[in-house]
Amino acid sequence: MPIDSIRTNRRSFLGGTCCAVAILSLGGGATAASGADPAWAEAAAIRRRIRPPRFPRANRFTPQQFGGVPDGRTLATEAFAKAIAAASRAPGGGRVVVEGGVWLTGPIHLRSNVELHVDRDSIIRFARDPALYFPPVLTRMEGNELMGISPFIYALDCENVAITGHGVLDGQADREHWWNWTRSPADGSERPGARLKRLAEEQVPVAKRVFGPGSTIRPQFIQPYRCRNVLIENVTIIRSPMWEIHPVECENVTIRGVTISSHGPNNDGCDPESCRDVLIENCLFDTGDDCIAIKSGRNADGRRLKRPTENVIVSGCTFADGHGGVTLGSEITGGVRNVFVENCRMDSPQLNTAIRFKNNAARGGTLENIHVRDVTVGQVGRAAITIDYNYGEGAKGAYTPVFRGLTVERMVVGRCQRVLDLQGFAHAPIRDIRLVDCTIVRAAEPDIVSHVEGLRYENVRRNGEAVTGPTPGAAVEPADMSG
């Protein structure tokens, strides 16, 4: 896809969303209630702590200096590696600047104190030959650790790493490359993803969970792993094999101004997993799965690692297609706490849910202290807010999911199937959901509210009428505290 087409699509979508926001604002809304959420002072403190790394501009290196040719045909993997090594050795670190043209490469492995800067008229195109992405590296796939195919851009145990610039990162995935790895083996053997899940449940050491050449576990696009001080800014990501941005066990992460447009299977936009202090702001998501999905490990691996994701701010982002706008789960065993979502816009019939939580009795994670304010939703295909304990394995497990504390303030929804779809367990109710100063212009069907305690409405309007409880005709089951 040409760079100009990508930028035109971004401007068109942002313009259309602005129109939807303006129309909703003209429709009026609920008069503000007293008692605004005081937790946002905590969000301000988190934001002050998150500081992106900085790099000496004088220490500048290019792939051309090391034999790279931007012709879209000559493999530049070695040139990138040499430029990154030189930048890392420079006093205070340095920048690898990609200037103009189309660069074909295998995996790019960053080092500490290195910024990869992709200029506006540049495309880094990742080669389709899987053999280039081995030997295996430590990575994580859907919440389970393994030694597997390298992410396209990868950093392990680094400090001060960045990917910046207004250029394009092109994974070249399509139905015949990478995405076709979702198919079952023709010989009927165990799928690699199923084998990984089995090995993790059996607690096989990670060093022995080796998935080498010939395996069909797809690579992540960008994965900083156990890194501190990470910046990903302004780049455009297209045609990803799997999840696009996947920080794992990272701290002090800034993801800003990124455009993600990729509609393949499992094409999550940004999935911080087992991370602390994360800022995602002013990004555009147009994806084939959840736009943002906050995670913390899956089942036995999540319980082994015991690493929650905490202190996450999502601000000023725009969401088009996807399963969920801002999602927590389902690989959530380590827990998630202190998530703040504000000033975001969502609008697409292909966006299923605005705010989505996925958990079950096999995961058993704790989700708590979630705060949402000033979110405008033009339309979503299903519920505006979903909390689902029946996702995936559902009740088939020995671990109790916990959800406590969601406050949604000043959310305006133009059109949705229903406002709420809340499905807890009788022995593990969803607790403390608070809607404040919210307006839903058109909800077609009654809510689903099953095993919920502490659901409160404060100055909420639905279909032009004040709402004081679940909508008439809602499927409501009270929480059973006897179990």
UniProtKB/TrEMBL annotation:
<dbReference type="Pfam" id="PF00295">
    <property type="entry name" value="Glyco_hydro_28"/>
</dbReference>
<dbReference type="GO" id="GO:0004650">
    <property type="term" value="F:polygalacturonase activity"/>
</dbReference>
<dbReference type="InterPro" id="IPR006311">
    <property type="entry name" value="TAT_signal"/>
</dbReference>
<dbReference type="InterPro" id="IPR051801">
    <property type="entry name" value="GH28_Enzymes"/>
</dbReference>
<feature type="signal peptide">
    <location>
        <begin position="1"/>
        <end position="32"/>
    </location>
</feature>
<keyword id="KW-0378">Hydrolase</keyword>
<dbReference type="InterPro" id="IPR012334">
    <property type="entry name" value="Pectin_lyas_fold"/>
</dbReference>
<keyword id="KW-0732">Signal</keyword>
<comment type="similarity">
    <text>Belongs to the glycosyl hydrolase 28 family.</text>
</comment>
<dbReference type="InterPro" id="IPR011050">
    <property type="entry name" value="Pectin_lyase_fold/virulence"/>
</dbReference>
<dbReference type="InterPro" id="IPR000743">
    <property type="entry name" value="Glyco_hydro_28"/>
</dbReference>
<dbReference type="InterPro" id="IPR006626">
    <property type="entry name" value="PbH1"/>
</dbReference>
<protein>
    <submittedName>
        <fullName>Glycoside hydrolase family 28 protein</fullName>
    </submittedName>
</protein>
<feature type="region of interest" description="Disordered">
    <location>
        <begin position="463"/>
        <end position="483"/>
    </location>
</feature>
<keyword id="KW-0326">Glycosidase</keyword>
<dbReference type="GO" id="GO:0005975">
    <property type="term" value="P:carbohydrate metabolic process"/>
</dbReference>
